[in-house]
Amino acid sequence: MNYRMNNNRKKADNFVDGVREHVRLGLKFSETVKGKLSLGARILQIGGVKRVFRQNFGVREGEKLLKVSQCYLSTTAGPIAGLLFISTQRVAFCSERSIKFSSPNGELVRIHYKVSIPLRKIKRANQSENVKKPSQKYMEIVTVDNFDFWFMGFLNYQKAFNYLRQAISQVQNPVQK
Predict the structure, then answer these.
(1) How far is CA 39 from CA 34, 81, 133, 156, in A?
(2) Which residue in 58, 69, 131, 155 has the most C-beta neighbors within 10 A?
(3) Alpha-carbon distance 52 to 48, whole Å?
(4) pLDDT digit of tens for each residue in the chain (177 aa)?
(5) What is the 3 state secondary structure string of the chain?
(6) How many CA atoms does the CB half-sphere of 40 hold within 13 Å?
């Protein structure tokens, strides 16, 4: 009984740390909350996270969505909030909000920031944490052509990393039928 209480307390503490870290990475608390509400409304409007994945990335034959996590993708312009999709064939990220940029002909265009990495192109996935603040955990994905992608601010970091590791291992060590 005591073990179960301690285990539940640890899970709750980890979740609270994840929420705190997720909110800390946002620009302002009010903007972060507004973004989360907007994201939730968009997910409901589209019909769930599976449909969001399908709409943004398409689904390949035999592909199954394993896990969806809210997180941030680190970019040179700063962290971008969005959803990380882990499927049986790829890891994909789509920003929560559209981003403005100038097109080649000079007009302002708004698009969602998207990344799609086939699992077979992932060399490794690494876990990392801030030495001074262990609650700040990072996930690095390194591709076979040595590009690296850093994700952070997960609500449930360990669960997301476990799904990623499981998906990668199934591609690297396929079960023979």
Answers:
(1) 9, 10, 28, 18
(2) 69
(3) 6
(4) 555 545 545 544 444 444 444 444 555 666 655 555 555 556 545 556 778 788 889 988 999 999 999 899 999 988 998 999 999 999 999 998 888 888 889 899 988 899 999 999 999 999 998 888 888 899 999 999 999 999 999 888 999 999 999 999 998 776 654
(5) CHHHHHHHHHHHHHHHHHHHHHHHCCCCHHHHHHHHHHHHHHHHHHCCHHHHHHHHHCCCCCCCEEEEEEEEECCCCCCEEEEEEEECCEEEEEEEEEEEEECCCCCEEEEEEEEEEEHHHEEEEEEEECCCCCCCEEEEEEECCCCEEEEECCCCHHHHHHHHHHHHHHHHCCCCC
(6) 6
The one-letter code for the residue type at 8 is N
